[in-house]
């Protein structure tokens, strides 16, 4: 017996169905960066495709290429990190949709598209306040004019306008939304006809219907990860899809030693702060070492007993994250490939 991350693909599909109902008539782009938030890219996108998801937010070109190879030509795949000429060339060649938040990058994309005689599909990004890349509002008109000129040569097609919200407060998001709408209008005045406008991720897509536009980019909620300090899974209508467990490998006066440690991605800051699920109920997590952790003993503990750190029958990843002021995604993406992924359902 070894440590395992069990992923319930039926629960995943149920989350996807719920998201679709919640956000309709907008479409769902499933965000699959960081190996689908640690859940394993290929099984996740295959199930999502079967469940009707057609847009995938891959972040980097390599992930986008895997999605293309797995799902074929009909998948729409959005990447927003393509820096080098090689990456841009691959992205255009594979007909990935490219997020472009920089005028120089826009010209690079057009040049490479001409070189390989394949028009690039571009989503222009307006910086609505996060300052994390994106065309500044004061440069937007000029960038939109450049994009329209490049579009008229056939090198690029501007299919989208997008931005990313801070989701820190409604006021900030409202200001960002106003800036976003102004940018869409300016792009239309410049002669562009973007057909997909997208602004929101999980939290705002659920809480702020008026900000959804054509497409919402949802990662966390699809995997059943609720926001730290926010509404619970029941209120959101989602459920966690992953369960992280490991066996007891030694029992001594100190406690039950379990085969999951910091090297497997368990944050050592959790020691002394959370409880985990033993066969006879919740027990304190006492220590996290490199290769194992120590859990408060239960009277009838046996070697091979399974301890669950988060998921079915235990706390959620977000519950654990809250113990050290982090977020559930942070825990999920840290689980090392040393922990085997097992898929249920599907
Ligand atoms: C990660 C990410 C998302 C998804 O965010 P969630 O809160 O996990 O839904 C959406 N858009 C961008 C640009 C992202 O980087």
TrEMBL record:
Recorded hits in InterPro entries, A to Z, give: Ala_racemase, Ala_racemase/Decarboxylase_C, Ala_racemase_N, Ala_racemase_pyridoxalP-BS, PLP-binding_barrel
Q: What is this protein called?
A: Alanine racemase
Question: Does this UniProt record's set of keywords contain Isomerase?
Answer: yes
**Keywords, alphabetical:** Isomerase, Pyridoxal phosphate
Q: Which cofactor does it need?
A: pyridoxal 5'-phosphate
Superkingdom of origin: Bacteria
Transmembrane spans: none
The organism encoding this protein is Microbacterium pumilum
Question: Which residue numbers delimit the Alanine racemase N-terminal domain?
Answer: 7-227
Q: Name one Pfam family in it.
A: Ala_racemase_N
